[in-house]
């Protein structure tokens, strides 16, 4: 069965490319050659290169390992941490929910 490709929109592609460029810059600042970075991450040189170019088809595992090797793994903890919109939607759904009385709490006259 062929692998399904998820559509990436232009804005998302730009974000992926910018992330790849930041990972490449971090690697270069540490003076780690591409082939050595790939070996440390556990992927081949081509996959490392694709990740640094922002190819969204590279695995999340490769991204996580890259951040770890670069000493940036704590950045993962900040991704989607503050879901303000989700909290507001949850609060709205909770406040609009009708309150039901439990049979045990209802007094009969």
Descriptive overview:
The chain is mainly alpha-helical. The protein has one domain: lambda repressor-like DNA-binding domains (434 Repressor (Amino-terminal Domain)). Helices cover 54% and strands 0% of the residues. The chain has helices spanning 10-29, 34-41, 45-52, 60-69, 84-96. Helix 2 crosses helix 3 (45-52). The protein is elongated and about 70 Å long.
Count helical runs: 5
Task: Name the helix and strand elements from N-terminus to C-terminus, one letter apiece.
Answer: HHHHH
Which range does the strand content fall in? under 5%
Largest sheet: none
What are the segments in which pLDDT stays under 50 over at least 5 consecutive residues?
A: none
Full CATH superfamily name: lambda repressor-like DNA-binding domains
Mean pLDDT, all residues: 89
Report the principal-axis shape. elongated
**Quick one: how many beta strands?**
0
Helix content: 40-55%
Oligomer: single chain
Distance linking N and C termini: 67 Å
CATH topology-level name? 434 Repressor (Amino-terminal Domain)
> What is the CATH class name?
Mainly Alpha
Structural class: mainly alpha
Rg? 23 Å
Tally of domains: 1
CATH architecture: Orthogonal Bundle
